[in-house]
Write a structure and sequence with these properties.
The complex is a heterodimer. By secondary structure, chain A is mostly helical. Chain A folds into two domains: about 15-90, Orthogonal Bundle (Rna Polymerase Sigma Factor, Chain: A), CATH 1.10.1740; about 95-190, Orthogonal Bundle (Arc Repressor Mutant, subunit A). Chain A contains ten helices and no strands. Chain A is globular. The relative contact order of chain A is 0.11. Residues about 1-10, about 95-105 and about 180-190 of chain A have low confidence and may be disordered. By secondary structure, chain B is α+β, with helices and mostly antiparallel strands. Chain B folds into two domains: about 5-55, no CATH class; about 60-255, 2-Layer Sandwich (Phosphorylase Kinase, domain 1), CATH 3.30.200.100. Chain B contains eight helices and seven strands. In chain B, helix 5 (about 90-110) crosses helix 6. Classes of the chains: A mainly alpha, B alpha+beta. The interface between A and B is large, with 63 and 55 residues.
């Protein structure tokens, strides 16, 4: 029926299953890459990790119960990202957000709107967050996931998603409005 | 000094995740809490700044290609062109060959090809449309006329093409019209309507046909779902990374 298929290492699915994989999982390749890019803070590492996670998803596709292919795939991608970080950049996982550097202060909607126009600043601010805050923001704001989906992707109780998002957004706000200024203050204090 | 709701319920409200009773309760609270009002505004600004910045990054094509190659097994030579309807899921390695072939024939010139109205679908056609869809996702290639107003988009096509594509906005059904453009698919100029679906883009390719109406047919290529139908002298192909049911919903709206 399909020469070459039997010879492939990954040829674990029959044609029908493979068509199902193509239909259910492949539309979420961008979501998979985007999550990896933000958790790993870079496109190059994301290339490799997303690629491997997708192959993994293909291998384990039989175990997928068919409910929500995107959440299922993103869960695999997320796990792959954390394994990669543990192995290659454990500091990323242990670095907590430095509240001293980003003291909470009067954020005005105006200052935020100005700061937010700058893609570079937003990227930096997002990347300054701990991965666990970054991922909920990415899942919610860039992928449009529901709380329920975020809960299943991150293995977090659904009740915690709201507070995680709340903390993540406050910290993002703080680093957007306070980031460089606060660092200057710190630097001056050193002098 | 600080309202505790700004750190919890406010975000559920912002995300539309509160049930009706809790949402109403929070709205009541907003009437008497300037702090939550200010925070809600700040959070809405933050959200729109994130949306405007376009931070979502698309996967490089090589990821799709690697995956297709890995799951499709080793390359096999193209023997025949399978009709699109008979076998919607063709081998990916095949697809790449065909996509390359489609690009090649466009370069050669369309006069050697049957025109669109004669060739019903076919893998090259699908390949060319997936190709055009991918092209449109490059920055600045999506729309020639950017408007959510069907009365702006429709006249824009007049004088540019010799047929009138059906232009409607379905914003209330969750498919806002974002604009339109002209595209060239296998050497033919076609009209394209661009619809949004949550954070995704749906391209609807439209060209005239002399053939009879058909019911919608669906399939997927390279991770993109497509839906194809003919109605009232037009052939329409919707393509996107949204789910197949979403595409069907848009197809029903357009075909109404």
């Amino acid at each position: 029926m399909s020469p070459g298929f039997e010879g492939s290492d990954l040829g674990v699915l029959d044609l029908q299953e493979r068509a199902r994989f193509e239909q259910l999982v492949l539309p979420h390749v961008d979501a998979a890459f985007n999550l990896a890019r933000w958790v790993l803070r870079g496109r190059n590492d994301a290339d490799d990790v997303a690629q491997e996670a997708l192959l993994r998803a293909y291998r384990f596709f039989r175990g997928f119960n068919g409910a929500d292919a995107r959440a299922w795939l993103l869960q695999i991608v997320r796990n792959a990202c954390y394994s990669w970080l543990e192995k290659n950049r454990p500091m990323d996982l242990s670095t907590e957000f430095d509240e001293q550097l980003y003291p909470q202060s009067g954020t005005t909607p105006e200052s935020l709107a100005i700061a937010g126009d700058d893609k570079r600043r937003l990227t930096q601010a997002l990347e300054a967050l701990p991965p666990r805050f970054r991922e909920v923001l990415v899942l919610r704001e860039l992928e449009g996931c529901s709380y329920k989906e975020i809960a299943s992707i991150t293995s977090m109780p659904i009740g915690s998603v709201m507070s995680a998002l709340s903390r993540a957004r406050q910290r993002l706000q703080q680093s957007l409005t306070q980031g460089p200024a606060a660092k200057n203050v710190e630097a001056q204090r050193e002098l | 000094m600080s309202c505790e709701l700004t750190h919890s319920v406010l975000h559920g409200y912002l995300d539309g995740e509160l049930d009706a009773a809790r949402a109403a309760e929070f709205e009541q609270h907003l009437l008497s809490c300037p702090q939550c009002v200010a925070e809600l505004e700040a959070q809405e600004n933050l959200r729109s700044a994130i949306q405007r910045a376009g931070l979502r990054e698309r996967a490089p094509e090589k990821i799709r290609r690697h995956l297709e190659a890995a799951i499709g097994g080793t390359a096999e030579p193209v023997k025949t062109v399978t009709p699109i309807r008979a076998k919607p899921s063709i081998r990916p390695t095949w697809w790449l060959t065909l996509a390359a072939a489609a690009v090649f024939v466009i370069v050669l010139g369309s006069r050697f090809l049957p025109n669109l109205t004669q060739s019903r679908g076919g893998d090259e056609m699908t390949a060319a449309i997936v190709d055009a869809h991918l092209r449109s996702l490059q920055p600045g290639h999506l729309e020639d006329v950017i408007s959510t107003d069907q009365h702006t988009v429709k006249p824009w096509f007049d004088g540019r093409i010799d047929f009138a594509p059906p232009v409607h906005d379905f914003v209330s059904d969750g498919f806002p019209l974002q604009g339109g453009r002209l595209d060239v698919v296998r050497g033919k100029t076609v009209a394209v309507l661009v619809y949004g679906r949550r954070k995704h883009i749906i391209n609807v390719f439209i060209w005239p046909t002399n053939e009879q109406d058909t019911s919608p047919q669906q399939g997927s290529q390279l991770g993109y779902n497509w839906i194809d139908w003919r109605k009232g002298g037009m052939e329409l192909v919707g393509i996107s990374d949204v789910s197949a049911p979403d595409l069907t919903a848009l197809q029903k709206l357009i075909a109404q």
